[in-house]
Amino acid sequence: MKLPLFDYEAPETVSETVELLAEYGDEASVLAGGQSLIPLLALRLARPAVLIDINGVAELSGVSATDGWTAIGAVTREYMAEESERVADAVPLLAAALPLIGHEAIRSRGTIGGSLAHADPAAELPAVARALDAAFVVRGPSGERVIPAAEWFEGYLTTSRRPDELLVEVRFPAAGRGTGVSFQEVARRHGDFAIVGLAASLTLSDGAISDARLALAGVAEVPVRAGAAEELLVGERPSAELFDEAARRATEDVDPPDDLHGSSDYRKKVAAAIVRRGLREAADHARERQ
Amino acid sequence: MVDITLRVNGATRTASPEVRKTLADFLRDDLNLTGTHVGCEHGVCGACTVIVDGRAVRSCLMLAIQAAGRDVTTIEGLAPDGGMGPLQQAMWDSHSFQCGFCTPGFVMQATAFLADHPDAGEQQIREALSGNICRCTGYQSIVDGVLLAAERDRER
Predict the structure, then answer these.
(1) Which residues of chain A neighbour B57 with C-beta distances below 8 Å?
(2) Contact criterion met (CB < 8 Å) for A189 and B130
(3) Interchain pair A3, B22: CB under 8 A
(4) Fewer C-beta within 10 Å: chain A N or C terminus?
(5) By CA distance, what is B113's nearest residue in A?
(6) Which residues sit opposite A167 in a β-bridge?
(7) Cα dihedral sign for A199, A203, A204, A209?
(8) Rounded CA gap, B36 and B44, in Å?
(9) Where are the domains of chain A?
């Protein structure tokens, strides 16, 4: 369908944007790449009175590094992050996930901040952010606050950003030596939303796992960390038996949704399979990065 | 209404579209460039794919006013003399399409992709075209056409 009527604002700075958000509050939607919001408008699933288009806010675009963190501006296009050497070196898990987002034409416009603020639990970037404990920097009328990923995702398409706050930047911790990653997903067709996805990161020190991070996409209202599996893995040496047990623990407490793409039980089985596969790949990758 | 100036197929155009008008509808209704097809109108089918500043985008997921100052290429811009460009010729020779509705989207997506990946193989081409839907062909003939264009380009 054609888009419904809305008023349109196109600020050029973050402070202007924050003023507009303060003025309109939840009457407004922030328009970044538009690859989710414009379909929502076309399908009448969203009816904001005002669109605040932040594509012209130059300070929101770009990748930078600050002591141990890689900061990505909210309006950085997904293809730009995909092509960024800094992202490939410092945040390999993000680099592994980016090519799986939608299709090439979607990544031409889609933004890092847009996907994370939209917070679709089956999407790739929320799982990456949750696995890595990314930090979300928002700015509102009373200044800036930093929200950890564990508190960012509140529910289906819902984050802890207040209506008068703007997501300005997402910070990802840089992967050190010995850290290997894997992003796995099963989808009906390339580019579709994942039926189930997995973001995995393992760090090996002297042959044993010193840090394990697993986040599942598509199994709940939010991306889910597999804490019980992570606890099991730390301190152990990678082995097929260990990864089998980790897959069991990662999926025993999840109760995935049922829909026409897959039953709950099917999703659970696929989740266990991709946990095993992801752990194997992450461990191999970690050995290469010693 | 917002006044915008942009380049479309090499020519500077000035217009005042309604803010809610998508780039796809603007190209078709305001500029009479009806080669860009509108299928699903919510970013799933790929029929409306055009090239903006060198990258393939879905023109139904972009507002016309967001194209201000940009360089847009549509299917009409590939062969301004009314003939066919090399990719179009290769697709014609491969009988790539049947009904033709999805054609402009595929051709624009493949144009942008081949410009960046002239040495692409079949798997990469399939992946690059995975966001475009064709309900006639089963895709094999489309992939063949793109492969043929890439091959001819390398021989030149």
Answers:
(1) 105, 108-109
(2) yes
(3) yes
(4) N
(5) A104
(6) A138
(7) negative
(8) 15
(9) 7-53, 63-173, 179-288
Q: B55 touching A, CB under 8 A?
A: yes
User: How close B81 gets to chain A, by Cα (Å)?
Assistant: 27
Q: How many contacts, defined by CB atoms under 8 Å, are there between A and B?
A: 79
Read off the tokens for A53: 């288009």
> How does pLDDT run across A76-105, given as a tens digit for each residue?
999 999 999 999 999 999 999 999 999 999
Best CATH choice for the domain B86-155 from the list 1.10.150.120, 3.30.1490.20, 1.20.58.220, 3.40.440.10? 1.10.150.120
Out of A192-196, B83-87, B101-105, the most confident range is B101-105
* pTM, entire model: 0.95
**CB–CB of A109 and B43 under 8 A?**
no
d(CA A112, CA A123): 12
Residue B66 touches chain A, beta carbons under 8 Å: yes
Residue B47, token pair as written in the block: 């029929």
Token code pair at residue B57: 């985008």
Calculate the CA A136 to chain-centre distance: 11
